Amino acid sequence: YPLFVSGFQGQLSVPKIKIRITEAVKRTGMDIADYISKHVSGDWGSVTDSMRAANVAALMQGKGTVRSVYRASQGWLFVNVDVDINANWNITTFLTAHDVETFLQGSVLNFAE
Protein backbone atom coordinates (compact mmCIF):
# COMPACT_ATOMS: atom_id res chain seq x y z
CA TYR A 1 0.00 0.00 0.00
CA PRO A 2 1.28 3.50 -0.75
CA LEU A 3 2.32 5.64 2.19
CA PHE A 4 2.87 9.37 2.10
CA VAL A 5 3.98 10.33 5.58
CA SER A 6 6.12 13.28 6.58
CA GLY A 7 9.67 11.92 6.58
CA PHE A 8 8.80 8.85 4.48
CA GLN A 9 7.43 8.48 0.99
CA GLY A 10 7.22 5.15 -0.70
CA GLN A 11 5.24 2.09 -1.48
CA LEU A 12 5.21 -0.89 0.84
CA SER A 13 4.17 -4.26 -0.45
CA VAL A 14 3.33 -6.70 2.31
CA PRO A 15 1.36 -9.66 0.94
CA LYS A 16 0.97 -11.60 4.20
CA ILE A 17 -1.15 -9.52 6.57
CA LYS A 18 -2.71 -10.86 9.75
CA ILE A 19 -5.18 -8.73 11.71
CA ARG A 20 -5.69 -9.54 15.38
CA ILE A 21 -8.50 -7.99 17.42
CA THR A 22 -8.77 -8.51 21.14
CA GLU A 23 -12.04 -9.66 22.68
CA ALA A 24 -12.32 -6.26 24.38
CA VAL A 25 -12.16 -4.41 21.04
CA LYS A 26 -14.73 -6.80 19.57
CA ARG A 27 -17.11 -6.12 22.48
CA THR A 28 -16.97 -2.36 21.83
CA GLY A 29 -18.45 -2.88 18.37
CA MET A 30 -15.91 -0.47 16.83
CA ASP A 31 -15.67 -0.50 13.04
CA ILE A 32 -11.94 -0.96 12.64
CA ALA A 33 -12.00 -0.40 8.86
CA ASP A 34 -11.84 3.38 9.36
CA TYR A 35 -8.85 3.01 11.66
CA ILE A 36 -7.04 0.76 9.20
CA SER A 37 -7.49 3.45 6.52
CA LYS A 38 -6.22 6.16 8.85
CA HIS A 39 -3.24 4.08 9.94
CA VAL A 40 -2.03 3.16 6.45
CA SER A 41 -2.42 6.76 5.26
CA GLY A 42 -0.08 7.98 8.01
CA ASP A 43 -2.79 9.44 10.25
CA TRP A 44 -1.53 7.84 13.46
CA GLY A 45 -3.89 9.76 15.72
CA SER A 46 -2.67 10.95 19.12
CA VAL A 47 0.90 9.66 19.01
CA THR A 48 3.73 11.62 20.59
CA ASP A 49 6.48 13.17 18.50
CA SER A 50 8.88 10.41 19.58
CA MET A 51 6.36 7.72 18.57
CA ARG A 52 5.88 9.42 15.19
CA ALA A 53 9.68 9.48 14.68
CA ALA A 54 9.89 5.77 15.63
CA ASN A 55 7.09 5.01 13.14
CA VAL A 56 8.92 6.80 10.33
CA ALA A 57 12.17 5.02 11.25
CA ALA A 58 10.43 1.62 11.14
CA LEU A 59 9.00 2.44 7.71
CA MET A 60 12.37 3.62 6.39
CA GLN A 61 14.09 0.47 7.69
CA GLY A 62 11.27 -1.79 6.50
CA LYS A 63 11.19 -3.49 9.88
CA GLY A 64 9.79 -2.65 13.30
CA THR A 65 6.56 -1.53 14.89
CA VAL A 66 4.33 1.29 13.69
CA ARG A 67 1.89 2.51 16.35
CA SER A 68 -1.31 4.52 16.28
CA VAL A 69 -3.52 5.80 19.09
CA TYR A 70 -7.09 6.93 18.40
CA ARG A 71 -9.79 8.36 20.64
CA ALA A 72 -13.05 6.68 19.67
CA SER A 73 -16.50 7.18 21.17
CA GLN A 74 -16.11 3.77 22.82
CA GLY A 75 -12.72 4.64 24.35
CA TRP A 76 -9.07 4.66 23.30
CA LEU A 77 -8.01 2.34 20.49
CA PHE A 78 -4.39 1.31 20.12
CA VAL A 79 -3.04 -0.12 16.86
CA ASN A 80 0.32 -1.88 16.69
CA VAL A 81 1.62 -3.00 13.31
CA ASP A 82 4.65 -5.26 13.45
CA VAL A 83 6.16 -5.35 9.98
CA ASP A 84 9.12 -7.01 8.30
CA ILE A 85 9.27 -6.09 4.62
CA ASN A 86 12.07 -8.59 3.92
CA ALA A 87 10.03 -11.47 5.33
CA ASN A 88 6.86 -10.14 3.61
CA TRP A 89 4.65 -10.15 6.68
CA ASN A 90 2.68 -7.75 8.82
CA ILE A 91 0.72 -8.39 12.01
CA THR A 92 -1.78 -5.67 12.89
CA THR A 93 -3.14 -5.79 16.45
CA PHE A 94 -6.06 -3.71 17.75
CA LEU A 95 -6.17 -3.13 21.53
CA THR A 96 -8.19 -1.17 24.08
CA ALA A 97 -6.58 0.80 26.93
CA HIS A 98 -7.51 -2.08 29.27
CA ASP A 99 -5.75 -4.54 26.93
CA VAL A 100 -2.58 -2.44 27.07
CA GLU A 101 -2.69 -2.36 30.90
CA THR A 102 -3.29 -6.12 30.98
CA PHE A 103 -0.35 -6.75 28.68
CA LEU A 104 1.97 -4.46 30.66
CA GLN A 105 1.08 -6.38 33.82
CA GLY A 106 2.28 -9.56 32.13
CA SER A 107 -1.12 -11.13 31.55
CA VAL A 108 -2.13 -12.94 28.39
CA LEU A 109 -4.50 -11.18 25.99
CA ASN A 110 -7.57 -12.90 24.62
CA PHE A 111 -8.06 -12.50 20.88
CA ALA A 112 -11.35 -12.73 19.00
CA GLU A 113 -11.86 -15.57 16.55
In short:
By secondary structure, the chain is an alpha+beta fold. Helices cover 32% and strands 37% of the residues.
List the helices and strands and how they pair.
Layout: E1 2-5, E2 8-11, E3 16-21, H1 23-28, H2 32-40, H3 49-61, E4 63-72, E5 75-84, E6 89-96, H4 97-104
Parallel strand pairs: 3-6
Antiparallel strand pairs: 1-2, 4-5, 5-6
Number of strands: 6
Mean pLDDT over the full residue set: 80
Secondary structure category: alpha+beta
SSE series? EEEHHHEEEH
Q: Treating each run of at least 4 consecutive H or I residues as one helix, how many helices? A: 4
User: Radius of gyration in whole Å, from Cα?
Assistant: 14 Å
What does the largest sheet look like? 4 strands, mixed
Shape summary: globular
Strand order of the largest sheet: 3-6-5-4
Task: Report the span from N to C terminus.
Answer: 26 Å
Low-confidence stretches: 1-9
Strand composition percent: 35-45%
Helix content: 25-40%
What does the model show?
With 113 residues, the protein is α+β, with helices and mostly antiparallel strands. It is 32% helix and 37% strand. The protein is built from four helices and six strands, in the order E-E-E-H-H-H-E-E-E-H. It has helices at 23-28, 32-40, 49-61, 97-104; strands at residues 2-5, 8-11, 16-21, 63-72, 75-84, 89-96. The strands form two sheets. It has a four-stranded mixed β-sheet with strand order 3-6-5-4.
